[in-house]
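Researcher: We're teaching a course module on how sequence relates to structure. For the next exercise, students receive a sequence and then see the predicted structure as tokens, so they can try to spot secondary structure elements on their own. Here is the exercise chain.
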Amino acid sequence: MTKDNDIHSKVIEVMKDKNLLIFKAGTIDGVGRHSNISIYETGRPIKDPDTGEFLGDLELYKVSANVAQRSEKFTVARYNPTNAVAIPEVGDKVVIKPSNLDKVTSSQDS
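Model: And here is the predicted structure for the students to work with:
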């Protein structure tokens, strides 16, 4: 489940040999050093069988990741394949939850 202040992105590159992925969101979007990153596979659309109403897309959790390197427009994150339900792929959905630790760190840097 996502919240209003979550940042949404997509995986744009995966380096499986290094357990790294790159997604298109960076410091300009609010990605901090301590942001919580979750990767999801977007599955099929879900419809109400009685009304036919579109309810949303099924999202299947794959893995969590930690920020390894940030730039203005993209972030490199490291994941642990032994903790992964599935290995991330290009196009997977990324949900970034900003951390309160980043707010404390940036106020101390000022």
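Model: If you want an answer key for the exercise: The longest strand covers residues 54-70. The chain is about 10% helix and 45% strand.
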